[in-house]
Every structure is written in structure tokens, then in C-alpha cells.
Batch of 3 targets.
Target 1
Amino acid sequence: MKPRALLFLLATFAACSSDPAWTWPPDDFADQADVPFDPNTIIDSTASLTDPYSLPDVDSVQAFLAQTPYGGASFLASYASNGVSAATAIVDASNDYQLNPLLFLVRAEMDDALISQTTYPSPASRVEYAFGCGCDEPPTPQNPTPRCDPTLAGFDKQVDCLARTMRGYLDDVCGAVQATPGGWSTSATTTTLDGVAVTPQNEGTAALYQYTPLVLLNQQGGNWFFWNVYQFFANAVAYPGAFGDAWIGDPCCGDASCSGYDNGTCAVNVPDGMCTAACSATVACPSTEGRNSVCASLSGQGFCLFDCSADSCRTGYVCQTVAIIGGGTGLACLPAN
């Protein structure tokens, strides 16, 4: 299974308008941001890339597809693959992998102009293999019908593949190695395939460059295009971004994400990361209105965990009985596996 962008690189240098039906609207290239483009910051924060609540439910994504920033409905508003609507596929992947739904909408437009298409486009590979997962080559105007694995056909399967790939890159750069397989890191400068020296300012930007190691200023196909279309879509839904205010138990990617309380740290050895803090019999865990945490004893040390006695755990975590520092037991969210 090959992520689209790693196969897409050479094709991006070729003209992308050889097929008049395979074009991107002028809005995608218009100035959409209040700030100048910075190749070191493709996404404003890792918290934004990993925020599944920008469009929090299927109805929100469906509403976006039914009335896009281009002034009409995308064909994806009435499309389904393998019995799964496009909106459901996006929300499921966002929740399962803790990623922003805008990521999938932006990539769908960036790679295949799918959001701006009002009718099912030709060739079908643009939709059924939208991100090139399972293909020898990604669908492009130059090679619109590559050889692909039929078991990975369908927008829903392509969205899941993109989500799994991006989550893997984020876990790499957020984990012990703190770098992607291609060496993209917040502590190193790496040169893109089109010759731009980039020092990612956050882990989300590093993951995006691992997926597509190109800038391609003012062109389709590189991270400038992702940045510009992301600004366009974020403005359309009035999404301000997330800026590292995650709380105890929330997903995280680095300590900076856990700044919603004092002494926050990110445990990177659990699914999608987890905000926590050290605690003891004399150092209490933080609490806020409607959200409580408990000081659990894990291997003899105190760690703040999300109190699930009244609220459910996020995807990938289960509510378990834990020993409380100072005595007694309580309920807290821990990884399911």
C-alpha cells in the first residue's frame, strides 16, 4: 500500500491541465490568508491537525459538502462507497485516528479537485482511488487509470488509508525518535525535492512534508497548495485553529499541546498521545468545570488521568479501576490495549 504523495512527486512537475475536465478552480490559487506563506509552518499548530472537532459530526461535514466554499454542492454530498457516505467516511477516520476533518477535505481538493466538482468526475479513479492507496501510481491527468488493488477501491477506504498514513507520521515525529522516516523534524532543516530548505515549526508541518516533500509555491501539488486550500476551507467554516490547550486525557503531540493546565506533559507511548501531569499525595491533579482528573498510581508513580466516573473515554481508551495515590480506587481512562 503506497501513500499517494510519495508516488505523486514527479507528476507534480508536469502540467496538470492536459485533461480539461481535470482542473482546479481559481479560488484554490487566490490569496486566502491574512498572513504571508511561511514554508516552515504549513499548519498553524499540531493541535489543529489533530483536532477532530473542527467539523464535529457527520451533519457538519455533510453541510460543508452540500454547500461548499465554491458556491454549490460537491458531488460527494450524495456519494457513497461500500455503503459509506463521504461525510461518514471522513468523520469515522477523524475520530479513529484523531485527525482534523479539514485534512481530508483539503487533500480531496488538492489531489483531485473533488470538493469543487459538482458531478462525479472522470475518470472514476479520481474518486475510487483518490489518494493513490493501493495503486502502482496515483491517478493523474497524465496517467488517469493506473493499476490499483480493487480491494482498496472506494473513497471510504482511501480516506482511512490517508488517515492511517498521516497518523503514523505524526506518531513518528511525536514519539521517541522525534522524526519521520524521511528525517522531517522540528529540530532539523531538510531540503524539499524542489530545493527549499525547511525547518518545520511544529510536528504537524513535519508530517505534512513527509507525506509531500514539496513546496511548489503558487502551484498545485505541493505544501503551498495545501496551506492555501486549508486557509480557504478553515475560513469558510470559521475554524480558528487549535493552539495547544488540550486537557488531561486529550490526545497530544509534544508537551506544548498540553498547556491547558500547569505542568502539562504529553505521554507519547500511548495511542495518539495523552496529556497528563505528575502528581502525588501533596501535588493535586487539575480540575475544571465539567472535567475532572484523578491521581493514579502507575508502577508506583503518580500520573493524572481523565476521570471517567461521569464521562466516557475517547476512542482507543477504556474506563478502568485504578489505585489512587493517597488511598482508595477510582475510575480513569487507560489505553484499550
Target 2
Amino acid sequence: MNCEAFKDWLAESRARTLEQSPAASAHVESCGSCRQTADEEQVWRHLFGLIPEHSRGPSLWSGVTLAIQERQHRKLSLSDALLLFSRRLAPAFVVLLMITGGWFLWSSPRIEAEGGSMIAMLETSSSGFMEEPDAILVAWAEAGRQ
């Protein structure tokens, strides 16, 4: 057995030891680097062997279903009832608040300018041009006095 074949055997022989393969054992005796590799592998196997096996504990579902059943039969405290009430009615309260706010804004009295709406008619000369450059301001001022 050569070094490459030994390394392949070592990678494939997870549960086997050197004593189970005479060819691998003979190669380890004659090759120093493979002996070092086999010793490292033995240390790693020992360390991994110290890790305890994973064992499944009892199922948690029985405790979960029991807690759900207890909660269903338990009487609600005042704080639990208020919390449940607020979670269910908070969206309805927001909608009601928006509707009443909109109704209040829609029905509030409108403030209009004194004299109501007006359109100022500008008088022009026969040529079609305004006689005075500030005719708009003058017409507005006169309309406000009425």
C-alpha cells in the first residue's frame, strides 16, 4: 500500500482501526508521515468519541396543547379583557374618529369675504386700452367700499 492508498483508506474507514487492515498497519509501520496522520486521526476519533450522543427529549407539543387548553378555560383578568377589547376595537375607533373629524370639517361654517364674491369689471377707453395702469387696484378698492 502506498501513501495515497493509505489516505484514501483512512478517509473511508471511519469506524475501522488499523488492526482490522493488515496492509494499512504494515504501511504505517514503514512510513513516518502516514504514522503521524494515523496518530492525528486517532486523537480526533477519541475527541469526537467524547461528545455525548444527541438524545431527543420528551416532545414539547403535549405541554403546548395543555397550556392552550388551560388558557381557554381560564377566566380573563381585567387587564387581559381590556387588552383584548382594545386590540379589537382600536381600528373601529380610528375609523369613527376619522368620520366624525371629516363631518366636523365639512359642516363647519365657511368664512367668506365681506360683500361676497365679486368680479371687477375694468372700464377701457375706445381704443381698448385701460386708461389707468392701476385700474385693477382702483376697481378692487371701490368694490370693497360698497
Target 3
Amino acid sequence: MNNNKKTCVLILILCLIFLLTGCRDNTTTLKSTKHSTLTPTNSTTITNSTTTTALSLSSPLTDKESLYNIEQYYQKFDFNKLLTLGTNDLIEYVQDLILDAPGLLKYDYDDLRYLYDELDSDGKGGLILFYAQESHSATWDKGNTWNREHVFARSLGGFQKDDAAGYDMYNVRPTITSINSARDNKVFGNLDHNSSSVTKVSYNGKVVAWTNSSVFEPQDSVKGDVARIVFYVSTMYYKKYTNLELKQVLSDTTYKTILEWNAMDPVSEDEIKRNNVVQKKQGNRNIFVDYPELANYIWG
């Protein structure tokens, strides 16, 4: 074989090796798990053999004391386990973390009436009504204008006001009494706003929700908050009460709707501030506010 032929053969061999290597790299790049995550900040990375995925705090926190507490709080939470556990085992693993807190649930249902000016502060001495997202006087008037709403309804979860889920600060929020009545114990879901069977729920001239005989849909700015609350409650009290599973409080038992709500209404600064205040009073944190993408690992 002359030199020119040898050179051509060598070039062909090198090209073939290059092409095969490139294909293999592309195949590796295209591998994925069934879970998706939101864009991370301040990420803690978890890996398995085929992918690198990140979980992260929802937003940078400027309160150094709060940030320190958060870092300490999640110190023993092994994120590397997330891709190795099945749904039920993962729920129990997260439950162990949020149950292990000093002074957990030391306030009762009656106490909450006088804590909302701090828990849901509007910054002016009043409180923010949950579904309406409007300021209101924090003065307790025996429920005539505002009262306490169980976001994960008691009748759907199988617990009472004097059970832990019945006075958990993450689950019990201040709401205008008329809106609380419209919510009743209905499940959450999306509704056809043009349907004759759907009623608008208004406050101060603004539509804040829609409802029919069995479903309640809050306004978009509250949907993510609702999602992260019911994620927390169904995890915190998993197997503790009769029917307390996430699907009990949803019209869509495939979880698709509630996961969409979690993504379309991201964690706000107010949610983060409230998480910090509740931690100081109740002892634990809503992990789905700190790591909203965790819901995809459990129910996605």
C-alpha cells in the first residue's frame, strides 16, 4: 500500500472514531429521568448515574439569621436519596424531617386568632386575607368579617380543630367569612368560568375565586400558595388521619392540576417571610416553600 492510500485509510478511521464518540456523547446527553425541576438558585445538587438534577431554595434570603436557620434545618436532609425512593417512602422521609422540630405546634386553634397580624402581616398592623389577597383589620370580631380557613379541609382530611392538622399554622389561614363559606369543604380544581353552573366569588368588587357545587378555584395569585400548603399537609400528616392524602382535596386525582399551580404561581417573598415567622413560632418549615420542585419528585 503506498503512502497516499495509507494516509486516506488513516483519515477514514479517525473520522469513524470521531463520529462514534460524538453519537455516544449525544445519547448520554439526551438521557433523562421522569422528573423535571424548576430553575435553581443557591442549588444543592443531587445526582444519579444518568442525570444531574438540582433542588434549591426558591429565592435568595437576605435575613442572615433566617438563612442560617434554614441551613441548619436541612443539614441532615440527604438530597441524594430523592432519586432512590418511591413515592410513599419519599413522603415518609420528608415527614420525618418536618416532624423533628423543637417546640412543634405549641399554639392551639384559638391562639391563631391573635397571631395573624404577624403571620400574615400587611406591614401596617393589619393582616392579608388568604383567598382575597386584600388587607384587613387584624382585630378579632368573633368571625363576623374574617375567620380561620383550613386550606386542606377538615372533613376531607378526617381531622378536627383540636387535632394537629386542625391548628397547624401552615394550614389555617385568615379569610373573609363569605369566601370561606363559598369554599366550604369543596375540592380544588380548575373550572370553566363561562359555564352557567359556575359562580364568581367576589370581594371589594374583584373576582377572587370561582366555584360550583363541588369544586373551588382560587385566583391565579393564590394557586401556588394553595398547592404548597396541601403538599405540606398531606406530607406532614401522612397516614395520621383517616383520609388525609393529597388526592382527597383535589378534583384532579392525577395531581396534574396542582403541580401546574405550583409551577405557574412561583413562591413569593411573602411566602418566604411567612415560612420564617412560622418556623420561629411553630418550630418546623414548609419544605415545599423552600423547595417547591420537590413536589415533582413525589407526585410528578
